[in-house]
Structure formats: C-alpha cells, structure tokens
C-alpha cells in the first residue's frame, strides 16, 4: 500500500478532554455544560456513559421538562461492573457508531481502581502467580514465603492490564466524537513532625496534613493510570473550594482562549472549543422554531459556500443522508461541488461513512423480514 501526504488542514478534529476532581468539585455539571457547547446547543447529540449508578441522571430533564442551564436532555447509558478497559472501549465504540457528536464518561476512574478495573486485574494475576509458585514449591526448601512470591509476581502481573489499557487509550484516540472524561481525584497528604510542650517538656509528634502550600494542579492527584492525563488534548483539575473553575494540568496555547481560567466552565467554553476544532468553519445554527422564518444568518456564521450555503449546511445535509444509508449518502456526496467535497472529505470518512454503515446494519433485519 502506497503512503501519501496531503496538505494538513484542521477540519473537525476530535477533542479529548479530562476533568478531574474530588466530590463536590462540579465535574459532572461542568462536563455537561462543555458537552452542550461542543454539540452547538443540541443535547440530543450528547451521550453519557455512567458508571456512578445513574448519578448523571440528577442533571437530566424530568418528563415533560425542557432543557435549561442545569438540566440536560442527553442520551444515558449505564456501565456496570466489571469496569474493565474492554467494557469502557465497547461502550465508547457503541456511542460513536450511534452517531453521537459528544461522549461523556462519568467516571473513568473505575477503569483504574473500580471493580474489575486495572488494580483488580493486577491483584488477580498476582494471586494466580502465588498459587503457581506454591504448587511448585518443595517443602525441603523451607517454608513458602508468600510475601516474597507476591513481590516477585507484581511487576509481571501488570503486563496484561497495561496492554488492555493501551488498547482502551487507542480506542479513545481514534474516536470520531469529542470525548469528555470525568475522573475522581484525591488530595495528596504530607507527613510532618510538630513539636508540642507538655508539663515543661517538648515532644515531637507525627501528623498528616494537607499540603496547602503546593500548587493546586500538584496538590490533587487524578485517580487513573499515571500517563493517562497526558494522552488528553486538554486536562483540567476542579476543586471543591471553587467548583467548576478549571486549573490546568495540560492546556496548550491554542486552547487557552477557549478555556476560562478562574471562571466557571460553561457552554460558551464548549462552543469556543468546537469552533477551534472546526478549523474556522462556522458552528451549525440552531433551527428556527416551527412556523417561524429562519431569518438572516448571524454575522459570525462565516462566508457562504457556493450556492448560498455554508459548509455546515452541506455537512448537515450529509448527516441527514447518512441516516438513510450508504446509497443515499453516496448520492448526496456526488451532488456536491468539487470544492465542497474537498473541504468535507475528512468529515465524510470519519463521521458520515460510519453513520451510513450503522444505518445500513440497523435496516438489514427489517429488509430480511420484508423479504421473508
């Protein structure tokens, strides 16, 4: 297979965002606000993978209620134990294939220390190694040292969990949709010795204290594999002291204008990141209410493409065609002008073709039923 190069264009790149924080730091609400902005205000394009026994539903709309600043109309999926890397990868793949544009995982920490996660997998491998060593032990060698056997087995026992974790990370990096991962974080503690005087004598006492003098991004440790946060496009810490206000772990120059340091994360931050990810293409405009004229495009919609339509208009048309299957997508694609096809080629390959294939697969059982 020949390897080729083409001019690099930032066109609808996927974002991988991590929000880590302790309980009460505003992770879930912040993630949903960002997700709404990334989805251009359309909650129906958001999927939430929930490992917290349905807690994400605390922010869902009630029956008959309309979405608001703190109530969201997302699609919800429960992820139950075991929280293996494969289970997470399968859930992400399902949401991605279903065509959601933003996927929130709350929480991703279970993949590391939850039931069936990396630590449980490692512990099970150590136990199996100890059992094998015990079976092979000759009593003439002396008593079996289980602690030493566990120590010897520990490093090798990480091999399989780490391999599966890398496959999970690879799945995240290949995802078409934007991903927002919520992670738990724990505060680092420091051991200090203090002096106390009692009855005229000085005593030293060891205490565990909060390291208040440490920078917040070093004071809080996300609960995840140690390199996981640096796989992200953006990784942020949230604290209970200032819920929803991000402290950057990884925030590159090109994203700093979108992420409001010192301010609560909002839908506007998500919209700004969405605009950056589109490479300058306009965000899709919300549809006008039924019975009302669409009106003139806003000033920031951008220059229209040939025929009076923006690139987003053409992209929306491809989205609708893909929902009807591969044949309809092919017809819609061929009807586009050559310069528009060049602009939307990446979107075709990464989003519309997989969505059309999923539509074909969903329709196949009905077609077979009709034929029968």
TrEMBL record:
Biased composition (Low complexity): 277-296
Protein name: AAA+ ATPase domain-containing protein
Domain of life: Bacteria
Xref: SUPFAM superfamilies: P-loop containing nucleoside triphosphate hydrolases (SSF52540)
Source species: Rhodoplanes serenus
Pfam families, per database record: AAA_24 (PF13479)
InterPro entries: P-loop_NTPase
Annotated segments matching region Disordered: 277-313, 347-372
Residue stretches of biased makeup (Basic and acidic residues): 363-372
